[in-house]
Amino acid sequence: MENKPVVVGIDGSAAALDAVRWAAHEAILHATRLTIVCCVDDDILALSDYPWPDRYYEQLKEHAHKDLAEASALAVSEILKADSDIAVDTKMLLCDARIGLQRFAATAQILVVGAYGETRRVSGLLGSVAEAVSTHAGCRVAVVGEQLDSVRESMPNTVVVGVDGSRCSAQAVDVAFEEASLRNANLVAIHAWNFTKIQSVFRTETPRLSWKETRTAEQAVLAESLAGHSDRYPDVAVTQQVLNSDPVGALRDAGDNACLLVVGSHGRGGFAGRLLGSTSRALLHTVTCPVIVAR
User: Fold this and answer.
1) pLDDT in tens, 50-72
2) Helix 167-183 vs helix 14-30: crossing angle, to nearest 10
3) pTM for this predicted structure
4) Closest listed residue to residue 164, CA positions, set 69, 269, 33, 284
5) 219: buried, middle or exposed (CB in 10 Å: 19+, 13-18, 0-12)?
6) Domain parsing of the chain, residue ranges
7) Would you identify the CATH topology of the domain 155-294?
8) Which CATH superfamily is domain 6-146 in?
9) How far lies 251's CA from each of 138, 139, 241, in Å?
10) Identical fold at 6-146 and 155-294?
């Protein structure tokens, strides 16, 4: 991949600092620079009749500079501990975070945000902001939840990818193999097919397709989706799973025992024009490990 930077958005929250830590290691893995972005939105001052203090906007910018300095110091510390020398730069934007972060989509290798943010000061990376970036950004997006060090260190060295045979799923597979190879991690490819729920839709007396037959067909879909990748990434050990299960539940459970979950922005059951599928959206709200939405 082109040597574009890893870009991470911050707002002073604990989740944002976890996102910085994760983004720093992602930049190290990809041997590229890290850009830390903080947004200060002054629209709220213009659109509200609330009597804001005279220096309120200046204070917002001061807090942003402080947050950027703290995040930069954390990133540099992580980089030095990894014996790396990648560059770190910071940027403050005077706009809404949902708009500001998406400006980097064309020039970033991946956009990283915390799963939720800080509401008290700078334009926050709230859940809505993380969702907006995941939905609209034209590049990979990683959403990182706040995690205790003990939880982070105990995560198995496993990358999980959701596969359903769609074009977006193929992009997720590409990303998952790359990330697993960089991490020296195992890869678990999951194709979950809620056979029981699908069968309940058909209320006819004609013979129904059995799960055994369906499983065979879906195993072929999974194998075809992974074909050729092991030749390019011979170092990645792959486990294939075809499950008669709700995709959200299956991927969430697997993600709880992984260091990373990769999904496509929407799957083969998605509506045309939908920017973020229901499965990807649900996983962003529930999975405990970092999630990459591939585009």
Assistant:
1) 555 667 778 888 999 999 999 99
2) 80
3) 0.85
4) 269
5) middle
6) 6-146, 155-294
7) Rossmann fold (3.40.50)
8) HUPs (3.40.50.620)
9) 23, 22, 11
10) yes
